[in-house]
Design goal:
Structural class: alpha/beta
Shape: globular
Low-confidence stretches: 173-191
Helix content: 25-40%
Strand content: 5-15%
Largest sheet: 4 strands, parallel
Distance between the termini: 17 Å
Order of helices and strands: HHEEEHEHEHEH
Number of helices: 6
C-alpha cells in the first residue's frame, strides 16, 4: 500500500485495528457484500441528491467522518482536509493535530466537532466552548470508546505524538518542531 512512503508510525496508525482486528475484518466483509443497483433507462435530468441535515441543505448526503492525526500524513493536516471538504460537512476529530482556530480559518464550508468525552468535565466544557466559539455548527459525540482499544499493531500508545506535533484541542497547542525538515516538509511528502 503506502508503507514505503510513510514513516513507520504513520503507516501503523493508518493500518492498525483494535484488539485482534475482528471488527475491522467484519466491516471489510460487510462492505465487500454491498452492491450498487444501477437504474438504467430512467430520466435523470432532475436528480437531486441533496439532503437536509440539522437544518442545513447539503449538496449530497455525504460527510467527511472524524479521523485524527492528519499531520502524521501531511504537514497541512486537517487544514488541507477541511479545505477539501468545501462542498460537504467536515467533522473534526477530538484527536486533531491542528488547532481548531486554524481549522476554522481554513474552512470553506461547515464543520462539526466530534467529541470523545473525557473524565474531566472542566476539560470537556473548555473544548466544547472553543469548538463553539470557533464556529463548529454541531457536535458529534462518540460514546462507544470509554476506554481506548488495545492497538498493538499501531506501535505507539495513541496519545504521544512525534516531536513537534500536539493534539489541537489540548492546552499546549501545536508548537514548532525542533527540525522543520522532518516534520513540516518530511521527505515522504515530496515527489
Amino acid at each position: 500500500m503506502t508503507a514505503p512512503r510513510l514513516p513507520d508510525l504513520a503507516y501503523r496508525y493508518l493500518t492498525s485495528a483494535a484488539g485482534e482486528g475482528r471488527t475491522a475484518r467484519w466491516n471489510e466483509e460487510r462492505y465487500a457484500d454491498l452492491r450498487l443497483a444501477p437504474r438504467v433507462g430512467v430520466d435523470v435530468t432532475a436528480v437531486d441528491p441533496s439532503a437536509e441535515l440539522l437544518g442545513r441543505r447539503l449538496r449530497h448526503p455525504v460527510l467527511l467522518a472524524p479521523t485524527g492525526c492528519h499531520r502524521l500524513f501531511h504537514p497541512d493536516g486537517e487544514e488541507a482536509s477541511v479545505r477539501g471538504a468545501a462542498d460537504t460537512v467536515f467533522v473534526v476529530s477530538s484527536y486533531t493535530t491542528t488547532p481548531l482556530a486554524a481549522i476554522a480559518e481554513a474552512a470553506r464550508g461547515p464543520w462539526w466537532f466530534q467529541l470523545n468525552p473525557a473524565p474531566d468535565p472542566g476539560f470537556v466544557a473548555a473544548v466544547l466552548d472553543e469548538a463553539t466559539d470557533r464556529g463548529a455548527e454541531a457536535l458529534v459525540v462518540t460514546l462507544d470508546t470509554p476506554v481506548a482499544g488495545m492497538r498493538s499493531g499501531q506501535g505507539w500508545d495513541g496519545v504521544s505524538l512525534p516531536d513537534g506535533l500536539e493534539f489541537g484541542v489540548l492546552p499546549g497547542r501545536l508548537t514548532p518542531p525542533p527540525d522543520p525538515e522532518t516534520i513540516y516538509r518530511p521527505a515522504w511528502t515530496r515527489e
